[in-house]
Amino acid sequence: MTNRLKSELLLLIGLLLFSGASAKAWAVEILYPQDGTYVTKSNYLVVRGGGDPLLDGVMIEINGVKSELVDLRGEQYRRLYADKLVVEPIYDPGENAIVVEGYLQGELVASSSASIYFLADETKAPPTNYRKEVFHQAPREVACAPCHNMQPSKVQLQDPTTNNPCASCHARMLAKAHVHGPAGVYECSYCHDDESQPEKYALRLDAGALCLECHEEQNSMPLLHGPVDAAMCTVCHNPHASDQSAQLVTELNQSCMSCHESLIGKPHVIGAMSATAHPLEGPENPREPQKKLNCSSCHDPHGGQFEKYFVGEVKSAMALCAECHKK
User: Fold this and answer.
1) How confident is the model at residue 118 (pLDDT cuts 50, 70, 90)?
2) How many domains does the chain have?
3) Residue 56 in contact with residue 83, Cβ under 8 Å?
4) 143, part of any domain
5) Hey, which residues does 45 pair with through a beta bridge?
6) Which of 105, 133, 161 delimits the end of a domain?
7) How far apart are CA 140 and CA 135, in angstroms?
């Protein structure tokens, strides 16, 4: 090889190294939820943008529906969120395709995508090709540590106020009309194990077993309703909070009909002396006027002493009727 050829080759290598070192590389990362996972809440979509300078705009597309360009240039925004964007998405039940695009000075410079599954009905099993989204793992918490206390002490976890470190992300789940007592005072670590590995804050027992530690009376009746007998409390109740009384996942009759579909649109309890069916809701509740007439006006949803889980100490259908229909 001639000296001239060597010189030209060295010059070419130098130019390549220089151009590579000075090139700007941008990226956007979907931090939560991760690709290939399923979630049971449509609450957060967390995105991080990398590069120098930082991305100044992000556009989000979910199932073909695009957002407007989100401007990230504000000084106050940067001070609060740095290189992250946290939004509340609207997922469709089932599979959701997410695309995130990063922009700099109006030019598309990076993109990322994820396929996630929104399990809107927790009584159903998710597809086997989607794993559970588990955020609280050490490598993933690193991204949030600059703003959130990701290593709280046991004393901090027992704080009953909104200063509790769990509240910095999860307080919104309690913004409902009916809040479960322990959740309302941030006793999160009673149910969630802060020492579990590799998933932090996993339930220390199965959900049903945890419920029965405090609500053992619901499991002490001679005849138990199927979900109670199987310790499937969270099929009907949200363990944190709900806009329905008793922290029901949905309105009571709707919860009942999700399993007892055969009663929908059909006569219920036709009296021997009349062809009129008994209403499932609507009229005043004679036994408890302060409460709405619904399935639980006649049936205890947890169980009972007698067949059909009649409320109170009622032993027969006729005796139950006589509770309201006095002669």
Assistant:
1) very high
2) 2
3) no
4) no
5) 87
6) 133
7) 7
**For 297-313, what is the mean pLDDT?**
87
Quick one: 126 and 223 in the same domain? no
Residue 18 lies in a domain: no
- Within-domain flag for 147: no
pLDDT single digits (tens) 60-109 = 999 999 999 999 888 888 888 888 888 999 999 999 999 999 999 889 99
pLDDT for the residue 275: 59
Which residues lie below 8 Å from residue 206, measured CB to CB, with a gap of 6+? 231
Residue 143 has pLDDT above 80, yes or no: yes
pTM value is 0.77
Strands (E), 13-80: 27-32, 37-39, 45-50, 57-62, 65-66, 70-71
Structural domain ending residue among the three candidates 104, 133, 162: 133
User: Same structural domain for residues 112 and 215?
Assistant: no
Pair of tokens at residue 47 = 């995105």
Residue 190 lies in a domain: no
* Domain of residue 128, CATH code: 2.60.40.10
The tokens describing 49, both together, are 């943008």
Show the domain range for 76.
Answer: 27-133
Which DSSP state fits 166?
A: T
Taking a C-beta distance cutoff of 8 angstroms, is the pair 49, 56 a contact?
Answer: no
Q: Quickly count helices (H) and strands (E) in the chain.
A: 11, 16
Sorting pLDDT into bands at 50, 70 and 90, what band is 191? very high
Q: Are 121 and 73 in contact (CB under 8 A)?
A: no
- Residue pointed to by tokens 């309703």: 225
